[in-house]
Design a protein that fits this description.
By secondary structure, the chain is an all-alpha fold. The chain has one domain. Helix 2 crosses helix 7 and helix 5 packs antiparallel against helix 7. The longest helix is centred in the C-terminal third of the chain and has 47 residues. The chain is globular, with a radius of gyration of 24 Å.
């Protein structure tokens, strides 16, 4: 009996240590985002090659990005946004950003794999998620600021919104360059190729679901016709 209790206690202690180590690493990878956005060349290289990032932190930043978008639509002062809150579909708004983001990651991985890209899909996804951090930081702040300034002072608000987007695009560019170990020119070319590839993927997905819908409609109508004739 004592041996069983000792074994159970040891297993509990091991699980507690693993959980503590996981949380410690998770907090460390969250904090590392500040280094990435201020020192992108070193930061993204370490993310891809030194395992300084984590999927948990990347998922957190992606969730905060989607949450920021929703809060922006719902909480920004009416002076700076005209979205009708009562007609906002939260799921639609969320997936309208999430799906293109994942498709872009997939398209970049698919295209670069054919041309000596060194990044795995996991590396690309983590780098792209870390590149979203300035958007979250600045846009959340601007939601609060929008309710404290007048419309005449909106130039500052608009400049900061544009700056957050430009910063994210720059970080995504550097991140993909470091992940794949490409030159700046090659990275720029493959960014364009990635966008084209993402459009092709979305087109094929839409065609597939359109054909699937037509096929389902055909079999449903045929079933109804058979039922009608038999009964």
């Amino acid at each position: 009996m004592r041996t069983a209790q000792f074994t159970k206690q040891a297993e509990t202690n091991v699980k507690a240590e693993k959980r503590k180590a996981w949380w410690s690493r998770y907090k460390s990878t969250l904090r590392y985002a500040l280094h990435v956005i201020t020192h992108p060349f070193d930061g993204f290289w370490d993310l891809a090659h030194e395992n300084k990032g984590s999927l948990a932190a990347a998922n957190t930043f992606l969730f905060l990005f989607l949450l920021t978008r929703v809060l922006k639509l719902m909480c920004t002062s009416f002076q700076f946004i005209s979205a009708p809150v009562q007609h906002i579909n939260l799921f639609e708004e969320t997936f309208s950003l999430l799906i293109p983001f994942l498709v872009l990651c997939l398209a970049n991985w698919a295209m670069t794999t054919l041309f000596d890209g060194k990044g795995r899909f996991k590396d690309i996804y983590i780098a792209m998620c870390y590149a979203l951090v300035p958007y979250v930081m600045i846009q959340l702040l601007m939601i609060v600021v929008s309710n404290m300034i007048t419309f005449e002072e909106g130039s500052f608000y608009n400049v900061m919104l544009g700056f957050s987007v430009v910063w994210c695009v720059f970080l995504a560019f550097v991140g993909l360059m470091q992940v794949h170990d490409y030159s700046p020119l090659k990275t720029a070319i493959f960014l364009i190729v990635t966008v084209v590839g993402a459009c092709v993927i979305l087109f094929l997905v839409l065609v597939f679901f359109s054909l699937l819908s037509d096929a389902a409609g055909y079999f449903i109508s045929m079933y109804r016709e058979i039922v009608y004739r038999l009964y």
